[in-house]
Specification:
The structure holds two protein chains of two kinds.
Chain A: E1 4-7, E2 10-13, E3 19-25, E4 30-38, E5 45-51, E6 57-58, E7 67-73, E8 76-81, E9 90-98, E10 105-107, E11 111-115
Parallel strand pairs in A: 2-11
Antiparallel strand pairs in A: 1-3, 3-8, 4-5, 4-9, 5-6, 7-8, 9-10, 9-11
Chain B: E1 4-7, E2 10-14, E3 19-25, E4 32-37, E5 43-49, E6 52-56, E7 59-64, E8 69-74, E9 83-90, E10 99-101, E11 105-110
Parallel strand pairs in B: 2-11
Antiparallel strand pairs in B: 1-3, 3-8, 4-5, 4-9, 6-7, 7-8, 9-10, 9-11
The chains are: A mainly beta, B mainly beta.
Amino acid sequence: GAVVSQHPSWVICKSGTSVKIECRSLDFQATTMFWYRQFPKQSLMLMATSNEGSKATYEQGVEKDKFLINHASLTLSTLTVTSAHPEDSSFYICSAQGLAGVDTQYFGPGTRLTVL
Amino acid sequence: KNEVEQSPQNLTAQEGEFITINCSYSVGISALHWLQQHPGGGIVSLFMLSSGKKKHGRLIATINIQEKHSSLHITASHPRDSAVYICAVPHSGGGADGLTFGKGTHLIIQP
């Protein structure tokens, strides 16, 4: 089956620093990758849609200048949380949509970000 | 934008019981996802279905497109089935959308 990896799996950083999270599709090409976040005891929420070679589309309420998304290749998308603050502490999950079928989404294992 | 309602929010059952989790959504969709999330947070995709019924081991998922409703069933439940089960549908109904998630059903199976 299709595998999506995320790196790092967890990260702790100081307030004001930037953190980059990588999402890779390991055995398939992903035309579209999605970034979600989940605050404690809440449901997952879509942050942005990332298409290879084009600018990401952000959901309402998500600051594009704070959450920088780069989808430079068909197997890699990165999310950079710039000038992180404690309220950015969350669980970030990516999913990748393959070329084979637009309905199929494969989820990464997630990255737990804690900002001190 | 699609809205998703799941029920029940919490469910505790005894090992061996038949489990049903329900999901309703507001906008017609191309496919619906059932996901499982364990305490560590990782998400496992259980099913993606657009019509009828799918079965994988002790898990069965059904969907009624006309009624905008899906159910996830677990037969002969086991403590290892304890997890949060989440229903998700395309944000705007289409296949190339990100997903909108239900709040999840927190399932505990007691031995």
